[in-house]
Amino acid sequence: MPLTNQPVKGMYILEENKIYYILDRQLKTQGRQGGLIIMRLQSMETGNQSTKTIKSGAKVEHIEPETKEMQYLYSDGSGSYFMDSETYETINIPKDTIGDYVNFLKEGMSTLVLMYNGKILNIKEVPNVVLKVTETSDAVKGNTANSATKLAKVETGFELQVPMFIKVGDDIKISTESGSYSGKSN
């Protein structure tokens, strides 16, 4: 396994034969004693979060997960179902693994799934998605005193606030990190 002394946010590391995802990393300096790296970790087995502090320059074992292209099929109460594009095998990824990102997955959409030794770690999230507006109310004349917004529902069932000029059938860009409107698609 490769070792690094620079763990960064978004990296997968191996500690005591368990895989952890680095949610956040902070560097704290202590004068003549050198620095400390404080990592907020999420266990890929249990989903539990913990904090680990190491000395700056200490090496951690990191892993490079392999990516596999899969097609999103649907979601239910237990998780989301994806089909392997090569073997046509269907796999279930638990709800806890994907989290709120399921709101931005469209049926038939190709997604990269991150795996390590045959075990599914997560899916590769994209920063913005383009989705079609399926429901929204009409703009009310005179309701534009300041940046007025209205509620809209997109094709995945996700609801968000959009500007008044958005209509049913418009394609809009949504930031997957915040779940907010980020522009109209061309």
List the helices and strands and how they pair.
Elements: E1 3-4, E2 12-15, E3 18-29, E4 35-43, E5 49-55, E6 60-63, E7 66-75, E8 79-84, E9 90-94, H1 95-98, E10 110-116, E11 119-123, E12 128-136, E13 149-154, E14 159-163, E15 171-175, E16 180-184
Antiparallel strand pairs: 1-6, 2-3, 2-6, 3-4, 4-5, 7-8, 7-10, 8-9, 10-11, 12-13, 12-15, 13-14, 15-16
Cα radius of gyration in angstroms = 21 Å
Mean pLDDT: 87
**Main sheet: strand order:** 1-6-2-3-4-5
Order of helices and strands: EEEEEEEEEHEEEEEEE
Please name the CATH architecture of the largest domain: Roll
Largest sheet, strands/sense/barrel? 6 strands, antiparallel
CATH topology type of the largest domain: SH3 type barrels
CATH class of the largest domain: Mainly Beta
Poorly predicted segments: none
Question: Total number of β-strand segments?
Answer: 16
How helical, in percent, are the residues?
under 10%
Q: Could you explain how this protein is built, in words?
A:
By secondary structure, the chain is mainly beta. It has three domains: 3-63, SH3 type barrels, CATH 2.30.30.30; 66-123, Nucleic acid-binding proteins (OB fold (Dihydrolipoamide Acetyltransferase, E2P)); 128-184, OB fold (Dihydrolipoamide Acetyltransferase, E2P), CATH 2.40.50. 2% of the residues lie in helices and 54% in strands. The protein has a six-stranded antiparallel beta sheet, with no helix packed on it. The protein has a five-stranded antiparallel beta sheet with strand order 9-8-7-10-11. Strands 14-13-12-15-16 form a five-stranded antiparallel beta sheet, with no helix packed on it. It is flat. 15% of the residues are buried. The mean pLDDT is 87.
